[in-house]
Amino acid sequence: LPGGQVTEESLQADSGADCVSLELRAADGALVTLTADFRQEVKIFRALILGELERGQSQFQALCFVTRLHRNEIIPSESMAKLRQKNPRTVRQAEEVRGLEHLSMDVAVNFSKGAQLSSHIHNVCAEAKEAIYTREEDVKFWLEKGVDGSMFEVLPQGSDVPELQRCRLCPDRWKPCICSYSLSIEWYPCMLKYCKSRDAGGKVSSYKCGIRSCQKGYTFDYYVPQKQLCLWDEET
């Protein structure tokens, strides 16, 4: 990390459920979890953000961002399950920094119905029941797969509500605004590496011989009913 901080991460894979999860503590103290559900083509980011008690916030605030999982974003769960760390304390640096993704999360997900989208929403987003967000373009993809549309609710947009500003520019703590939250997954196995071997007859075959690691940052923009729910997003 810049400035020489080291982020500790834990990775888990469940090849039976075909999912992978990764947890890390961000530099600002937030606990960030990424869950990739390959079966449902869903990825879930959860952030537990420490609250500012002196400013009337609760101990922590939980957010869940649910987006479509694309092929080849992260290595398959059975490959992740086989990863063995020879030296768990080794400081690793990602080989590839993937571009920052800026996502406009314009739809809310109903927690009690969310299990139909991914069974992991129930466990991962339990503290974020009122703050689960996704995007209209991902919803379209899931609806085509037959997911029940009644779990989604389109949120007010800046284009519909001209007075809706970004929270960092909004002077009134009790007004609705568009909040921005950024997180970074510092190290994750994003691709499998293949090597070639030649048998005695000269026939060439390829086999899995390792992983490529990536780092990727995300910024999520989403509607909040009051700026009080978005106190980190201020002019600093």
TrEMBL record:
Read off the InterPro entries from this record.
Answer: Oaf, Oaf_C, OAF_N
Q: Which domain of life is it from?
A: Eukaryota
Which residues are the signal sequence here? Answer: none
Task: Give residue ranges for domain Out at first C-terminal.
Answer: 166-234
Q: Which Pfam families match?
A: OAF_C, OAF_N
Domain Out at first protein BRICHOS-like: from-to ranges: 3-142
Q: Which family does it belong to?
A: Belongs to the OAF family.
Tell me the protein's name. Out at first protein homolog
Annotated source species = Falcunculus frontatus
